[in-house]
Amino acid sequence: MPKTLTFKAIRAKQSDRHEVFSFAARAKDVFEIARIDRAGRNTQGELFGFQRPQVSQHIHEIRDYLKKDDAVLPNSVVLAFVGGVKTKHLEEGVSEIEVEVGDEAPGLVVDGQQRLTALQALADKDFQVFVSAMICKDDEDLRRQFILINNTRPLPKELIYELLPTVTDLPHRMASRSFAANLTTLLNYAPGEEGAPSALQGQIKQHTNPGGSISSNAIQRVIMNSRSNGALRDFARDEDAAQKSLKMVGDFYGAVMDLFPEAWIGMGPRNSRLKHSVGIIALGYAMEMAYALHGARTREEFRDKLKCLTMDGLCAWTSGTWVFNREESRNWDRLQNTPPDIRLLSDYLVRLVRDQGVRSGSDLDQLRASLNEQLSLVN
């Protein structure tokens, strides 16, 4: 049978779109009205939840402290509700909150999940905690508040980036990354075409896919560079821009895997610079050259235009030495994810792909200006 818990709360006048309250509640009552919804993905790759994993040591430290007789916890737990809550105005700045509790707690923890988990040890006591609660209009609004509240905290950026595509009306700095974050997730879960397995499916390390071997930030860098001043910009305004971008980036890295299977399949950034961020990002510039100068659009065409990289001695993804020019060489594992190394490898790969053919002078000038603008962002 559903029951109702009632709290007397102070109401803060803040946003016109939200009701914000603060009240004290016993730990056991907090567990009845709110739950921790951890981020994950279902078998279709759809995102659910938003909270990071527990930090066991941190929780144990809080729990050990709270067991003491003189323990205090002035920090509040932040909860959000979309439904299941009724409010009643009592007097100026004071309201009564009724929370209907059923089989599942209606509230979600937005901030303070570690403290709340530690409080389970006190669930049988009358220990009270401060609760800050807000009522959101829908699930998207709730996710938006979670992102904005936690963006200044040391939360995993991978988690923030995965949540971005599920929310609108974000600050420009976050919104500009939303497309890249969404495409990265699609690449991580797209199965590829028959006879042409995806090179990126399950390979990208995300908060919900910690076993991935490729940095999600590196893939997002490639996408953002291309969308701002490269191949993906050509169809950025198309209704099916996401699908076209998905196919192109997927086809490109599929061609890379086809040409260098020994440096890709079963490898990670420590034993292959091909799957290291420096290699992933640098190859993104090679993709731009193959697209703009040689007209590569499909996996087969990219494979044809990147075949020059497979000549003996040109690439040292897993062993040997990179010989960039007469003055500079580098052991294979000395390349790092730093602006100078990214530019060094990018320039080298771009030159190799470029020198397969030549177009008109105006095309080359335009391409050179475009690539120089992209590479300048690395510095």
Automatic annotation (TrEMBL):
It holds the Pfam family DndB. It comes from the Bacteria. Coiled coil: none annotated. This is DGQHR domain-containing protein. The lineage of its organism: Bacteria, Pseudomonadati, Pseudomonadota, Alphaproteobacteria, Rhodobacterales.
